[in-house]
Amino acid sequence: MLAATKQLDTKAFAEFVSGVGDSVAGFWPEIVLGITLCAVLLYDLVLSRERSKNTAYMAFGGTLLSLALVFMLPSEPRSLFSGMLALDSFSTFFKAVILIGTLVTVALTQLDKENIGARLGEYYGILLAAVLGMMLMASSTNMIMIYLAVELASLSSYVIVAHRRQSRIGSEASLKYAIYGSVASALMLYGISLLFGMTGSLSVMGLADLGIRMATDVGFGIAVGLVLAGLAYKMAAFPMHFWVPDVYQGAPTAVTAFLSVASKTAAFAILLRFMASLDPGSATGIKMADGGLFLDWTSILAVAAAVTMTLGNLAALFQTNIKRMLGYSSIAHAGYILMGVAALEVSDYAGFKAVAFYLLVYLFTNLGAFAVVIVVSNQVKSEEIEAYKGLGTRMWLPALLLTIFLFSLIGMPPTAGFTGKFLLFRAAIDKGLYWLAIMGGINTAVSVYYYMRILKFMYLEDSAEKTPYPAPCLLGKVLTVGLALPVLLLFFLGAAAGWTKNLSLLG
Amino acid sequence: MHVQFANIVVFCVVGALFVILNVSVVSRILRPTVRDPEKYETYECGEPAIGSAWIRFDMRFYTIALVFVIFAVEVAFMYPWALVFKQLSAVGPFVFIEMVVFLLILAVGFIYAWAKGDLEWVRSIASQRGGPEGRSGSNPGNQTDSSERKNAA
Amino acid sequence: MPETTTGALIYQILELLPFLKELPEFLHIPMLMFVTGLIPVTVISLVGLVGVYMERKVSAFMQIRLGPMEYGPWGTLQTLADGIKLMGKEDIIPREADKPLFILAPIAAFVGVFLLFIAIPFDRDIIVVDLNVGIFYLAAVASIEVVGIIMAGWASNNKWSLLGAMREAAQVVAYEIPVGICLVTVVIVSGSFSMVDIVEEQKGLFLNWFIFRNPVMWVVFIAFIIASLAELKRAPFDLPEAESELVSGFHTEYSGMRFSIFFIAEYGAMFVASALIAILFLGGYYTGIPFLDNIDGILGILIRVGALFGKAFAFLFLQMWIRWTLPRIRLDQMFYLCYKVLVPFGFVAMIITAFWQMVLPGDGFMSLGWAPGLGK
User: Fold this and answer.
1) How many domains does chain A have?
2) Which has fewest Cβ within 10 Å: A331, B125, B136, C362?
3) Coil, helix or strand for A321?
4) Predicted TM-score (pTM) of this structure
5) Is A6 within the bounds of a domain?
6) Residues 345..374 of C with a Cβ closer than 8 Å to A: which?
7) What is the span of the domain harbouring residue A219?
């Protein structure tokens, strides 16, 4: 009769509890962020009606505290919450990148306040939820955890894109984002379930063993391909890139900036972890029926990288809206970064460093470019490239800074973009992917055209009106200059930046 | 164990048979059948029915369903916890703290839904326009916002 | 008891019906289960008959009338006569209705209630199956009935019916949450999902009953009564049927036997809910007086089954009493009561119960120290 009440193993449970206690010590950044999230939502709900500034301070403070805690995390790599998350220098780096991006985004939001509209408390709450999801993405080692983290980040992003409720273009963007996103996450979940069916384990580690064991299995190739497709969506890489221009144009500019860096960074973090455990150098990939290797993962990623950058660059050539153009440029950059992933070598972490460094550079560069877009559109009230005519004389500082950011996006010295791209190309060449490096070179040349077009508008063309615009507000100045400094400095420090050098993965 | 659940299947069959037996066999023998077109009309208190009843329905029912889905999932998470609580709470307060944290997070969502007016059936026009700032109608700083919404509509 | 049994009840039946043993081996268990299935059929029909009679008499007395007096002494055969009358009624399916759904709906509603009877322990051994997930099973199956009712409302293609069905769906769905919270609270105290375990936990003096386990259990008890009234769509929560505004709601188009199936299902559900209140909070089949509970043999079984039925019918009476006391509430009041009263109070009571259970893991608050020796 009492069969239902099984005596539980309380000793094992006590061990589990102490494990959780240990894990919490490595989980403080996320906890702080979660508490801030709830606090911001409740504060907005209960105390403040219109005082959005306070919620901005709260969000900023919480993120800053979280960032400080990230730097204080214990350095020796270990696994948290029975293998759910990894605490290693790799995840710490990506968490820091995401949090820095968030800090800038919060400031950008205050800059772009008029455009974003009311209900800023809610906005910050959702933003922090997305950040929490992305931080978990950076450290997940369990596939269900990866899926949950991706969903948390995605769902929050869908909502935040449509934050301007009165904006039709924003709602349309959000709907497109959500619909494509649900397809992508369904693909990914399907891939995860297939992998789970093959291994009986959800851990990302040990996929390589499986890959070798399943050497002739088409199903394995399909499963990994599905997971990669889901991740490609978050990275804005081919073949899941089509949402980017609409969403980047429709979303509030601060949100666009956030999505273009944080979302991409988190997705690349997962991709790196996933591919590292798959060990792309080993002889796994999509097999033919007779067991011969049809495509190994390196080639698949390389092809995806080449196609992504080409598509992004070609489409960017014909854009008239700067946010849309930066959207296509962000697709192209996903392609460049994928080049580094294709060159991944687990033994010496060659590709890792290049990717990590480029993401760090891209963070400052792209946020800076969007910050200038916000500063300009606050005065000019337009996001069309035409409106940048004569800006060099009418708003000299933003125009100058935009030039720096665009140089960095092209990859020209003396900006950090050069160092970043150099590392990526070198990783590809070291790996023997000469054709990919050449593709990258051609693409960079193509991209010069559309970036330079903006410079041409700003400096070489005159607008009918000649009077200078009023100088940007203090926050705008501080932000844009502050973002331009690392873009310039990282060029000098770049190769020596010790941070990305010591990245290592758990497992 | 499986036989236990097989019993449920048998019960389903027995229950269905009971209904079918009563309706289609016993009652069929006893009842008359006098056909008349009027009898087969849809009943609407004597008036001829206008249109089908299969129409789109009030949005608010969907809100209720959504709130239910959220809370039902939360409660479903609590069952396994409650089952082991008695034994594991003897080990230490971890089990209790765990659920308090869970409930606190749930409480944030609950308070949020409450304050946003999603738990109410009858909503004022102001609050339908969006949460707390819509409700403080007398606040002058709020007017731009609601006029924007009007334009959007 | 071997693993393959379906409960002790079956063995008792096997003793009573020796011819079952003559059947081929592979038919044993199916036949046994079939026979056990017939018992709840009888119980549910009888409960329906008694319940309807009781309802009419109670309402009559509350309105200072006599109620049915014609058939049998004190009109006791009135419901039987009504039942026979309903069987002879013409069966009408409206032309505009969705015919297959219209026919399936009463079956779904009836089976949904019928399945509840499996997990109700009338005595330690008189239970069809003591599922190890008993209470969870009840919570899950209890919502099948509403599927039948929504089917009925939709299939009728009648505006009253659809409105009633939608209200029913919203109401049942909303009150599922407080019911779930109450059940979780009970599980915290009992430490088991099994219905028999839950009752056995309350053995001994009535101070062992779960309602006296800690200072907030009565909150849960009252919340459960209210929520179960709403789940049963009994007055004052009878908006889905609301005779005066919705012409009986989902069963407007139903007539004859199909209508009475809904009726039986409803009274069956009322009985199950009342029995459940007794089981979860008031000691189930135990009287709460140790020497009566410890009697063995057929007398003991009778006392225990009688105790459960007594408690259940007391709650049936309570439901009728409430019906003639309180006016029907409005839809918004219904949601207010659920989300803004029952859910927060339920959660708070749940966490206090858990805390109490952790700090004082003994038999609880009433039997703390002053009643030594009277526990189990």
Assistant:
1) 1
2) B125
3) strand
4) 0.79
5) no
6) none
7) 26-501
